[in-house]
Specification:
Length: 334
């Protein structure tokens, strides 16, 4: 694989984080912003041992992370499916089951193409998609600040404690696993890349929460998708609502988020089994769809989902370090 650079890697990971925030369900408040911020710092600390060690270097670790990408891709498929109840491409009967199936099928086909072109091509396109999305979110943020409803900061309630919000941050941070395995393969210092990524993520998640609270905080108790609702209510231009632009960004980010997981899984499959590299992209998409079906009852914010993500970035490097230590003892014994 031709190495990607740190900016491209950060763009890919932030797109996944933004899509998870688009699909955020339940209330938001200042406690949510604080919990997501604290969770971001915890995740930054959690990936340090793996980054210092140099990432997934053994075949076993590559298999584990390949399975992780397939798992998280399945979770993202489910997020897209559930959120399509409120966000869908408008056409006749688009809100029904057939519309959801058609959109999901189209996303799967595009992801198949993305996984086949390789992660290097995906990383280049991610920079453009990230820039467009950043512009959209910036417009929404400026609109919220220009006509703020400051009372919403105290009116909005998430219905969760600070600790629960930290757990929710962990459960929706599947991109951290991508950082753990791809940062060492990227150009430059992986720890510096990680620092830049987490700094950008901190701004992203807290900015999206505060914007949503300012715009939709007064109706947060009856809002299922607060970020989507804030985009629908925001009107920064006199003749054009921002929700049409948001629909476009949501669709692009859904495709990119799932496609990035497929491309990453395909890359690792090709690394473990070079003879299967030609079919790795198709295999990863099919496995992600199967994972999505199996995980259809798993809640995004469940403790089990948080445990899988935590294991991917902590348990795997600890096991790898133990294996390295055992190997070193055997060498010394010889």
């Amino acid at each position: 694989m031709s190495k990607i650079n740190g900016r491209q890697l950060c763009a890919m990971l932030l797109i996944c984080d933004a899509f998870s925030m688009f699909c955020f369900t339940g209330g938001m408040s200042l406690v949510t912003a604080a919990g997501l911020a604290a969770g971001t710092f915890i995740q930054w600390a959690a990936v340090q041992p793996l980054l210092r060690r140099g990432g997934a270097v053994t075949k076993g670790e590559k298999l584990v992370f390949g399975a992780y990408f397939i798992y998280w891709g399945g979770v993202l498929f489910n997020l897209q499916w559930e959120t399509s109840r409120d966000i869908y491409i408008p056409y006749e009967s688009s809100g029904g089951i057939w519309g959801k199936l058609l959109i999901s099928g189209l996303i799967a086909l595009v992801c198949l193409y993305i996984s086949s072109v390789g992660i290097k091509a995906v990383s280049r396109a991610a920079l453009i998609a990230a820039a467009v999305g950043a512009g959209c979110l910036l417009i929404a943020g400026i609109s919220a600040v220009r006509s703020p409803h400051w009372e919403n900061l105290t009116l909005a309630e998430s219905g969760r404690s600070f600790g629960e919000e930290v757990l929710r941050s962990a459960a929706m941070s599947g991109a951290v696993g991508g950082l753990a395995v791809l940062a060492p393969a990227a150009k430059g210092d992986s720890r510096r890349t990680a620092a830049v990524y987490f700094a950008c993520k901190l701004v992203l998640v807290t900015g999206m929460v505060l914007t949503s609270v300012l715009v939709a905080g007064g109706i947060m108790s009856v809002t299922e998708l607060p970020v989507v609702t804030a985009a629908q209510l925001s009107q920064p231009f006199p003749v054009q609502r921002i929700d049409s632009l948001f629909l476009m960004v949501f669709t692009v980010y859904a495709v990119f988020s799932i496609g990035i997981q497929a491309a990453s899984a395909a890359y690792l499959i090709g690394e473990v089994w070079p003879s299967a590299e030609k079919y790795a992209g198709a295999a990863s998409v099919v496995l992600m769809i199967a994972a999505g079906a199996l995980l259809s009852k798993v809640q995004l914010y469940s403790s089990s989902n948080a445990a899988v993500i935590f294991a991917a970035v902590t348990a795997v490097p600890m096991l790898g370090a133990a294996a390295d230590s055992a190997k070193a003892r055997r060498v010394r014994g010889c």
